[in-house]
Write a structure and sequence with these properties.
By secondary structure, the protein is an alpha+beta fold. The protein has 2 domains: 161 residues, Alpha-Beta Complex (Nucleoside Triphosphate Pyrophosphohydrolase); 63 residues, Orthogonal Bundle (Arc Repressor Mutant, subunit A). It has 6 helices and 9 strands. Strands 1, 2, 3, 4, 5, 6 and 7 form a 7-stranded mixed beta sheet that branches. It has a two-stranded antiparallel ribbon with strand order 8-9. A hairpin with a 2-residue loop joins β2 and β3.
Length: 247
């Protein structure tokens, strides 16, 4: 077996914005930092990421970070930015102390940012996180992150909203079968706007790749809704130049 070279490239890293949806809110996977600086305990949050190994390309490094965090492979992953501004480290003194604490070089590192989409539900939302210091957090409740990670998160959210209107990436956040109400809620939460139910369903009805199946909800207090699936095969055959889900 070939020995893996684990030496690090100290000038290039990857940061991953991992989104998950639980039918009520959009969540992001964050790492909790716990350390002492100048006698004071700090507990804050950061995006998952790591330096790129010398035997990895960027996509491989991002996939490794996700596998180590969640245990999952073949997750939707999209590169959306590279950040290398000279003032990346001109932040709080405690951030510099954190770099020293983990043995990270105290110099500018270019980070390549990715966002990832994981389909979660209320029963599974806590089961993906394998690392003890990893938690899901509602995106709407996050106001501050370590380093420049808040800016990276905001940029990822803008990219997600843009992509959601032109590509069928929203289905990556849903279970294999879903109701139209769940699909509409997904779009409303991510886009941050309320959508007209009639217009939304009319638009969906013109999408042959959103396929109704012969199955309905069970054990619900309201009229059971029909389940649908997203057919990637049909989408590839019928897609137009623009997905245009700007509902």
């Amino acid at each position: 077996m070939t020995q893996t070279n684990n030496s690090l490239n100290y000038h290039v890293s990857v940061d991953c914005v991992v989104f998950g949806f639980d039918f009520g809110k959009l969540n992001v996977l964050l790492l909790e930092r716990n350390f002492t600086y100048q006698g004071e305990e700090y507990n804050d949050l950061k995006l998952p990421g790591d330096l790129v190994r010398t035997d990895e390309d960027l996509d491989t490094a991002a996939s490794r970070v996700l596998k180590e965090l969640t245990g999952l492979e073949n997750i939707y992953l999209r590169q959306f930015a590279a950040i290398g501004t000279p003032n990346r480290l001109n932040r709080l003194d405690r951030d510099m102390e954190w770099l020293r604490f983990i043995g990270h070089p105290e110099e500018v590192v270019v980070t390549v940012a990715y966002y990832s989409l994981i389909n979660i539900d209320q029963d599974k939302i806590d089961k993906f996180c394998l690392q003890a210091n990893t938690r899901w957090h509602p995106v709407a409740e996050i106001t501050e992150l370590a380093f420049d990670h808040m800016e990276i998160l905001n940029d990822a959210l803008l990219m997600l909203r843009s992509e959601l209107k032109s590509n069928p990436i929203g289905f990556e956040l849903l279970p294999s079968k879903f109701t139209l109400s769940q699909l509409q809620k997904l779009y409303e939460v991510i886009l941050g706007t309320e959508l007209d139910k009639r217009n939304f369903r009319k638009k969906v009805s013109n999408m042959p790749y959103v396929v109704p199946i012969n199955e309905k909800e069970k054990d619900v207090s309201h009229k059971p809704a029909r389940y649908y699936i997203f057919s990637k095969k049909v989408y590839e055959k019928t897609r137009k130049n623009s997905f245009d889900f700007s509902v």
